[in-house]
Amino acid sequence: LGKSKQKRLSGLPTAVGLLTALVATVIKTPGNNIRYLHIKKLGTIPRCGDTGVPLQGIPALVLVSLTRLSHNKKTVQRAYGGCLSANAVRSIVRAFC
User: Residues in the chain with pLDDT < 70?
Assistant: First the structure.
């Protein structure tokens, strides 16, 4: 037995022009095979336009996944819901009262 038998990887999909979308990690299957596992891109956290804090109640998804969500899962039931944070809206409401 000359060289030790080493498992080899093949079959990583190629992405033309979408190099940031092609991220893979190596996993071991229950059958003791080594395979690539494709990792999806992470979405950005939506932030308030005034204060810059992350908006609560709105998921951090990629734009394609956001189009599949219903409207009530993309907003908050408040004035400026989904665009401004609660503290920013509170200051706007206090300015006009």
Answer: 1-7, 13-20
Tokens of 17: 């022009």
Distance in angstroms (rounded) separating the CA atoms of residues 15 and 17: 6
Taking the whole predicted model, whether its pTM rises above 0.85 is answered as no
Phi and psi angles of residue 49, each rounded to the nearest 5 degrees, phi first = -75, -25
Q: What is the pLDDT of residues 34-48, one digit of tens each?
A: 888 888 888 899 999
Cβ atoms of residues 15 and 22 within 8 Å: yes
What is the DSSP track for 20-73? GG-EEEEEE-TTS-EEEEEEPPPPPPPB-SSS-PBPTTS----HHHHHHS-GGG
Helix H or strand E encompassing 94: helix 86-96
